[in-house]
Write a sequence for this structure.
């Protein structure tokens, strides 16, 4: 589904953040990415999302569904991102001037898909009946639920999540993770979740631990994820 080949990223010719990282993400796999602060976890997500460019290499470094990202022009990359990816990023805030229903419907609108599924998604995340509310009327946990609904509404093949429970209390974080896990498994999306939380990582099928020297892989044996 997604292949990384010798993915390398340096900022301003200084230290390399990612150094020849290679990995294959299988369809439907839920993978947690962990590692020390500054090791390059968010950089990895940004590169996969096409929000930042890797160092140039001879062979393609990021291949999505067999297509090298670097072979796409800006328009084609935007279309791929819009149609095939869902984001749960702090930077992709829920838009304050749109209702929850309008926020969740945005990916449908942008992909020219029929409207309607946003209501099912709001129901699925426990916010059915609140579609006409505005984001400022929500708690932090509810806001994350909206972000999850919006990330999944257009049935993306690849979901990228950066610390989806980072600023939530443990109980809320746990219920959000449970919800995310359930929605991801029912949609069959490949998921890459950056997290510092061992509890969050324990829900994943695999944990990639980025280190300054390379990559360690832990396979999480968690009956709840099978
Ligand atoms: N735009 C940028 N310009 C220069 N350096 C950057 C830029 N973005 C990130 N870095 C540096 O790259 C390194 C990796 O950053 P990144 O945000 O990917 O780390 P992280 O593993 O996600 O960290 P954390 O767990 O603290 O969020 C850091 O040293 C950071 O300062």
């Amino acid at each position: 589904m997604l292949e990384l080949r010798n993915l390398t990223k340096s900022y301003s010719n200084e230290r390399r953040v990612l150094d020849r990282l290679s990995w294959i993400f299988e369809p439907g796999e839920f993978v947690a990415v962990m590692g020390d602060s500054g090791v390059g976890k968010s950089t990895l997500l940004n590169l996969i999302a096409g929000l930042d460019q890797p160092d140039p290499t001879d062979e393609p470094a990021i291949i999505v569904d067999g297509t090298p990202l670097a072979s796409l022009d800006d328009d084609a990359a935007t279309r791929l991102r819009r149609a095939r990816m869902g984001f749960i990023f702090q930077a992709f805030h829920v838009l304050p001037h749109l209702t929850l229903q309008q926020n969740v419907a945005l990916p449908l609108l942008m992909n020219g898909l029929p409207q309607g599924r946003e209501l099912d998604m709001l129901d699925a995340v426990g916010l059915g009946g609140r579609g006409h509310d505005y984001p400022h009327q929500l708690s932090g946990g509810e806001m994350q639920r909206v972000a999850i609904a919006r990330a999944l509404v257009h049935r993306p093949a690849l979901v990228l999540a950066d610390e989806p429970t980072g600023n939530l209390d443990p109980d809320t974080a746990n219920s959000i993770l449970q919800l995310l896990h359930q929605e991801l498994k029912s949609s069959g999306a490949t998921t890459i979740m950056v997290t510092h939380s061992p509890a969050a990582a324990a829900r994943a099928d695999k944990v990639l631990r980025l280190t300054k020297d390379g990559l360690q892989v832990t396979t999480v044996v968690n009956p709840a994820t099978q």
